[in-house]
Amino acid sequence: MTASFENPSEQRALTSAAALTAVLSDAAITIPSLGVDWPTVTGHYLVTLGRVRSDVVDELTALLRDGLNARAQQQR
């Protein structure tokens, strides 16, 4: 059974959060508080990373840096 969403913005936020969680998991990075913040003041569904330990931020930074370096190599 597939969940249905009345709001496409809600579906996109949930899908984006799940995709990011999956990619981070592939890199052995876990952000336990990653989730979706329901619209209140902004009127938008927001993907939130929440609070993250500094060593996890360092791992995430290294992963992003490696990805950017790989992209730059492909563009040469």
Helicity range: 40-55%
Strand order of the largest sheet: 1-2
Overall structural class, as computed from helix and strand content, comes to mainly alpha
Sheet having the most strands: 2 strands, antiparallel
Query: Quick one: how many beta strands?
Result: 2
Q: Looking at the chains present, what oligomeric state does this protein adopt?
A: single chain
Number of helices: 2
Spans where pLDDT lies below 50 across 5 or more residues: none
Proportion of beta-strand residues: 5-15%
What is the molecular shape? globular
Task: Give the end-to-end Cα distance, rounded to a whole number of Å.
Answer: 45 Å
Mean pLDDT across every amino acid position:
90
Q: Tell me the series of helices and strands, N- to C-terminal.
A: HEEH
Q: Which descriptors apply to this entry?
A:
single chain; 76 residues; mainly alpha; two-stranded antiparallel sheet; 53% helix; globular
Folded structure, characterized:
It contains two helices and two strands, in the order αββα. By secondary structure, it is mainly alpha-helical. It has a two-stranded antiparallel ribbon. Strand 1 (35-37) and strand 2 (46-48) form a beta hairpin.
Give a quick precis of the structure:
The protein has 76 residues and is mainly alpha-helical. 53% of the residues lie in helices and 8% in strands.
Which helices and strands occur, and which strands form pairs?
Layout: H1 8-26, E1 35-37, E2 46-48, H2 54-74
Antiparallel strand pairs: 1-2
